[in-house]
Structure formats: C-alpha cells, structure tokens
Design brief:
The protein is an alpha/beta fold and 153 residues long. It has a domain at 28-100 and 136-152: 5'-nuclease (Rossmann fold). 50% of the residues lie in helices and 9% in strands. The chain has seven helices and four strands; from the N terminus they run βααβααβααβα. It starts with 27 loop residues before the first strand and ends with a helix.
C-alpha cells in the first residue's frame, strides 16, 4: 500500500469480529501491526514483501482479521513512521474486521508474558494476539515482525 494511497487494502468480508474461527470453509489469518505498517509505508524495508504476501493471501482466499489492540498499536506506529495525517487516514479508511480482546484473553496474555522465557520479552499486544489466535484455532498470521513470527512458530 502506498502512503499516497493509504486506503485499507483489507477486504471487509472477513470473519465476524465477534469470533473468527478456523472452522470456516475458507482459511483465516491474523494480521499483525507490522504487516499493516509495511503495507502503508512504501519506504519500509519490508514493503515489497508485505505487498506480495498480502496479494498471495487474498489469492488463496484468506479472510483476514485483527484485534482492537493491534489497531491501537498500528495507529501509534503509523503516527511515528508516516505521520499523523496518514495515520488518521488509515484509521478512517481501514476495513479490517476487528475482534475486541476480552478479559479472559487479557488474563491469559498477562500469564503468557510473566511466564515467557523469550530473551527479548513479548509485548502486551503480541501476547493478546497470540492468545486470540490460539483461542480461535488460527495458525496463520500476516506479519513481518520477526519477534511476532518467532512467537507464532
């Protein structure tokens, strides 16, 4: 996605925001903030790879979704990387289905962080993302952040 054209490149017909499921007739993938930033920022080192991966996901019929925590993190990252105007435009135009993290997800995420032995640690947003993916049986993630990808492996 070009910063001059930051409209959401995410289809609106993804899984229901009240609970994505791997038990659907189509594949489902979780979208991390790193992938969104890479799509929006054409100067990002992973922009071309993210654009190709996004096209591949769509061609394979994937339905994409994210969480409200990722939306917040993405807005913060875009503000820093491409500026508040593009960040606000992305927020206004994005159509990615959003699952709202529940209290039980947050409790499990806190436990995941506390018990993590990762040398780099794990962010709260990544922990809630991993918990949501696990809860709904989602194994596939669209991300370019190596830390997040290592946690999902």
């Amino acid at each position: 996605m070009d910063v001059n054209e930051p409209r959401a490149a995410i289809p609106a017909d993804g899984p229901a925001p009240d609970g994505p499921s791997a038990q659907t007739p189509f594949p489902v993938a979780f979208v991390d903030s790193s992938a969104i930033v890479a799509l929006v920022d054409r100067h990002d080192a992973t922009h071309a790879a993210a654009t190709d991966a996004y096209a591949d996901l769509l061609n394979q019929g994937y339905r994409l979704f994210t969480t409200n925590h990722v939306i917040a993190e993405t807005l913060e990252l875009l503000n820093a990387v491409v500026g508040p105007d593009i960040a606000r435009q992305w927020l206004r135009d994005q159509r990615l289905p959003v699952y709202h993290v529940e209290e039980q997800d947050e409790q499990r995420a806190r436990a995941l962080i506390v018990n993590s032995r990762s040398p780099k640690g794990i962010s709260y947003t990544d922990a809630t993302s991993l918990v949501v993916m696990e809860r709904f049986g989602i194994a596939d993630a669209f991300a370019v952040d190596p830390n997040f990808l290592n946690e999902t492996a």
